[in-house]
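Support request, please re-run this one:
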Amino acid sequence: MNSYHPKSLLNDLQYYITPPHSCSYLEHKSARMVFLDPAHRIDVVSLSELSRLGFRRSGDFVYRPECHLCRQCLSCRVPVADFQMNSSQDLTVKITRTADATPVHYALYERYIFERHADGDMFPPSVDQFEKFLVHSCTDSFFLEFWKDDKLISVSSCDPLDDGISAVYTFFDPDENRRSLGVFAVLKQIEHAKALGLPYVYLGYWVPHSDKMNYKSQYLPLELLIDGQWRRLNRMLNQEEIQQLGNSLMTTLPSGWNNPIIK
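Re-run finished. Output below.
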C-alpha cells in the first residue's frame, strides 16, 4: 500500500537546539527548543509532517520542545469530523480570510496585549514584535477575521496543512470578553477546516500542569501526541487525572498509566 503522504524531505532540513532557558509554561522549570533554520522557507507538505511530529510555528521559527526530564508539552489536535459544535454559541459574525495584515489588525492586537497580557512575554506590544510574531512566516499563513457589523472583534492567525489547519494565535477585542471570543474562534476554525474537507485543527501544546493551557482539553474528542503516537482523549479529565498525566510526563521514559483513559 502506498503512503498517503509524499516522501519526507525532513532529514534534509537543518536543525538547531537552544540552551536551557526558563519555561514559559511551568514555574521553576527550564526548557530547550529544537528549531529549524529560520532562513529556510518550507512548503505545506514539510510543515504538515513537522506538525504531525509535534513541531509548531511562531514567526519564522518552527520549533519543538526538547526538555530534560519533562515531556509535558503535548501537541494536540481536534478531529473535526467527530467534533460536536456548541449549539449554544449564538454570536453572528462575518468571517473573512486574508493573507495580509493591516493597521486595523495591529491596533486590535495592541489593545489585546495591553489589557489581557500585560504580565506576559509579549508585553509591551510593538509593530516590530507583531510583524515578527504573526506577519513574518516561513510558509503561506493566513488570517481569519471575525467582524461584528463593521467592527473587527477577533483575528486568528493560521497555517495551512495538508491534513488541516494549525491555529497559531488568536487575539480579540477585550471589551467583548463576555462573548468568550477565544473559544468562539477555535470553534470557527474547526468549522472552517470541516468546510474545506480537512480532518484536523492543530491547537498547539497542551501542558497538563499549566492551568492557563487546560482550556484546550475542553475540545473533545482531542488527540494528543504522547511519546510519538497520536492517542485520543474522549472525555474531560478531572483535576486529579490531569495532575496524574502531568506527573507521568516528568520523566524521560514513556509511562503506561493512561491506557484506561486515552485510547
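The chain is about 20% helix and 30% strand. Residues 23 and 31 are 5 Å apart (CA to CA).
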